[in-house]
Amino acid sequence: MLIIEGAGRWTAPAGAANDWVEQLRTPDLSVGTYCIPAGGLDDQSPHTEDEIYVVTAGRARIVTPDGGAEVGPGSVIFVPAGEEHRFVEVTEDLALLVVFGPAYGSRAPGRRTE
User: Fold this and answer.
1) Where residue 96 sits, what CATH number does that domain have?
2) Omega of the bond prior to 102 within 30 degrees of 0, cis?
3) Which of 33, 60, 97, 106 has a Cα-to-Cα distance from 90 of 20 to 30 A?
4) DSSP characters for 32-82?
């Protein structure tokens, strides 16, 4: 067992528009926190892994090619690998607990798998 301290807790990005911190990594999954300040820009690209977001603080709108939805504390969002997605209209500092399966970046082209 491992308690992942600070996972999903708001932390102001250090000199960047947003901040991703990976707090646990195994071959099968990774867990981290993604924070976007109110009014901030989400500049992420689609990922090569499936992803689950759990909103722990803040409010925003998530948009994908299929539409959009308002999200706030307690919202759980599944984004399949390769799907364009972005958080927009961040009206309150947004903190997201993020789970990737398999681990973040592990399916990226050119990356060796063990």
Assistant:
1) 2.60.120.10
2) yes
3) 106
4) EEEEE-TT--------SSEEEEEEEEEEEEEEETTEEEEE-TT-EEEE-TT
Residue pointed to by tokens 């491992």: 2
Task: Report how far residue 69's alpha carbon sits from residue 9's, in angstroms, rounded to the nearest whole number.
Answer: 22
Q: What is the DSSP string of 1-32?
A: ----TTTT-----SSSSSEEEEEEE-SS-EEE
Domain extent, residue 29, equals: 19-101
Residue in the block written with tokens 């990594």: 25
Q: Say if 66 falls within a structural domain.
A: yes
**The pair of three-digit structure tokens given for residue 40, joined into one six-digit string:** 């901030």
Domain count across the chain: 1
pLDDT in tens, 36-95: 999 999 989 999 999 999 999 999 999 999 999 999 999 999 999 999 999 999 999 999
For 76-91, the pLDDT digits (tens) are: 999 999 999 999 999 9
For the stretch 16-36, pLDDT in tens is 677 889 999 999 999 999 999
